[in-house]
Amino acid sequence: MRGTPFFFGDHRNDTAMDKATRIDLFSMRTAPMRAFHLTWMAFFVCFFAWFACAPLMPLIKREYGLSADQVANINIAAVAVTILVRLVVGPMCDRFGPRKVYSVLLLAGAVPVLGAALSTGYDSFLWCRLAIGAIGASFVITQYHTSVMFAPNVVGTANATTAGWGNAGAGAAQAIVPLLVAAAIALGAGAASAWRIALIVPGIAMPVMAYFYWRYTQDCPQGDFSTLRRAGIAIDGGKKGGWQSFLAACSNYRVWMLFVTYGACFGVEVFIHNMAAVYYVDRFQFTLAQAGMAAGSFGLLALFARALGGWLSDKAAARRGLDIRATLLFALIAGEGIGLYAFAHAPSAALAVISMLAFGLFTHMACGATYALVPFIDRKALGGVAGVIGAGGNVGAVAAGFLMKGLGSAQATLSMLGVIVAGTALCALAVRFSPEHKAREAALRESALAVNSGIAN
């Protein structure tokens, strides 16, 4: 399939045998571009399913008679298990390949989504919400897959774009799920049945997406890891000892600095997704549909803001080297913290929405800039690096959930988070690279561009 090409990066031809040095948005003729499009689509479906329950919480809270503490427990459960699964799927991608891991996650993740629709009370819903959290590990697979498909000159943009478009599934869930509820009610369903019917949509979409992912992607530009290993072909990523990559990642201080920064940006993003609808209903008396649209607008910023963060990182690095990526991340997280504090103290609904969109822009851009750095931390431990840093996002979300339980006030929690986030920006400045590391990455970049330039000529 090919239309008029639209490019990010260098305008050179790529082949299925080499990492892509450009993003040709209107083409799926190459393995990297098929992976590009199917990763963000799979990620979109996963995040839609992961956050489909969030805009339904006012209805579920009323039906099950949930206390504020029980709602907080559900929000924590939604992100807690993702920490463990993100740590696991990174090394699993190294061992089995992203194609197999993503397909299995999509199939398995549909079970608790449909289970939540059949829940009978607080306990059963809590356990389903906990299991649904595993779907959040889809992010790590998405970033892994694009990292092995795209060359250094454009990998930041590729990672950020696929993550951003996929992450928009969370915003889409906030906006669309209340409409599905309204449609079910209009067709004669009661409120208690309507929210259950709405959950069936992502529950069915996940196995459908699993089929397309299995059918049309491959692990890396050269093919699938298992086939390449049997042929004795060396590949970037896909080491047999997946847990060795995990241990290597854990011994790298840069990984832990980005673990913290990702907790500050993606952790806050997840926290906002889970509590925004209830916050707008409780504080500003929004209707369910109004709250869903307001909360959804925050998530939909990911459609362009994550990609913008990655693109800026790539462009800055092309001019000023690898270290500037970390400096950009520092500025974005500092801006996020200031904006989050302003959101907490917004005196009216209109100002709350405006300030939410402002700090949300910085939040999504910071997420993109973080994973624009990931491929350069340790190429021999890509799965471990991606998994540990990705888990940091969920640690941040869980920490924010416990902070809210401790303070007992959403507004106080948001205010405190703004201060904490601004402080964590310093961790980004601590990420620096040796002259040898920077020279090696510069050589890899030039080599990829030279190879593809030769193909073009």
UniProtKB/TrEMBL annotation:
<keyword id="KW-1133">Transmembrane helix</keyword>
<dbReference type="InterPro" id="IPR036259">
    <property type="entry name" value="MFS_trans_sf"/>
</dbReference>
<feature type="transmembrane region" description="Helical">
    <location>
        <begin position="38"/>
        <end position="60"/>
    </location>
</feature>
<feature type="domain" description="Major facilitator superfamily (MFS) profile">
    <location>
        <begin position="35"/>
        <end position="436"/>
    </location>
</feature>
<feature type="transmembrane region" description="Helical">
    <location>
        <begin position="101"/>
        <end position="118"/>
    </location>
</feature>
<feature type="transmembrane region" description="Helical">
    <location>
        <begin position="350"/>
        <end position="374"/>
    </location>
</feature>
<feature type="transmembrane region" description="Helical">
    <location>
        <begin position="286"/>
        <end position="305"/>
    </location>
</feature>
<keyword id="KW-0812">Transmembrane</keyword>
<dbReference type="InterPro" id="IPR011701">
    <property type="entry name" value="MFS"/>
</dbReference>
<feature type="transmembrane region" description="Helical">
    <location>
        <begin position="193"/>
        <end position="214"/>
    </location>
</feature>
<feature type="transmembrane region" description="Helical">
    <location>
        <begin position="255"/>
        <end position="280"/>
    </location>
</feature>
<feature type="transmembrane region" description="Helical">
    <location>
        <begin position="326"/>
        <end position="344"/>
    </location>
</feature>
<keyword id="KW-0472">Membrane</keyword>
<protein>
    <submittedName>
        <fullName>Major facilitator superfamily MFS_1</fullName>
    </submittedName>
</protein>
<dbReference type="Pfam" id="PF07690">
    <property type="entry name" value="MFS_1"/>
</dbReference>
<feature type="transmembrane region" description="Helical">
    <location>
        <begin position="72"/>
        <end position="89"/>
    </location>
</feature>
<dbReference type="InterPro" id="IPR044772">
    <property type="entry name" value="NO3_transporter"/>
</dbReference>
<feature type="transmembrane region" description="Helical">
    <location>
        <begin position="124"/>
        <end position="144"/>
    </location>
</feature>
<keyword id="KW-0534">Nitrate assimilation</keyword>
<comment type="similarity">
    <text>Belongs to the major facilitator superfamily. Nitrate/nitrite porter (TC 2.A.1.8) family.</text>
</comment>
<feature type="transmembrane region" description="Helical">
    <location>
        <begin position="381"/>
        <end position="404"/>
    </location>
</feature>
<feature type="transmembrane region" description="Helical">
    <location>
        <begin position="410"/>
        <end position="431"/>
    </location>
</feature>
<dbReference type="InterPro" id="IPR020846">
    <property type="entry name" value="MFS_dom"/>
</dbReference>
<dbReference type="GO" id="GO:0015112">
    <property type="term" value="F:nitrate transmembrane transporter activity"/>
</dbReference>
<feature type="transmembrane region" description="Helical">
    <location>
        <begin position="165"/>
        <end position="187"/>
    </location>
</feature>
<dbReference type="GO" id="GO:0016020">
    <property type="term" value="C:membrane"/>
</dbReference>
<dbReference type="GO" id="GO:0042128">
    <property type="term" value="P:nitrate assimilation"/>
</dbReference>
